[in-house]
Amino acid sequence: MNSPFYWGGATSAFQIEGAWKEGGRGPSIWDVFCDLPGRIQNGDRADVACDHFHRYEEDVALMKELGVNAYRFSIAWPRIVPDGTGAANPAGIDFYNRLIDCLLRNGIEPFPTLYHWDLPIGCQFAADGWMARETAEAFARYAKICFDAFGDRVRHWITFNESWCTSVLGYGLGVFPPARKDPDAPYRAAHNLLLAHGLAVRAFREGGYAGEIGLANNCDWREPLTDSPADRAAAERAVQFFYGWFTDPVVFGEYPEEMRSKLGARLPEFSAEERELVRGSADFLGLNHYTTLYASAEKPERGNDIGPNGNGGMIEDQDVFLSVDPQWKRTDMLWGVVPWGFRRMLNWISRRYSGLPIYVTENGCSWPEPDLASAENDTNRSEFLKEYIAAMQAAKEEDKVDVRGYFCWTLMDNFEWNSGFARHLGLIRTSPDDLTRHRKGSFYTYRDLIRQARG
Ligand code: NOJ
Question: 0.85 exceeded by the pTM?
Answer without folding.
Answer: yes
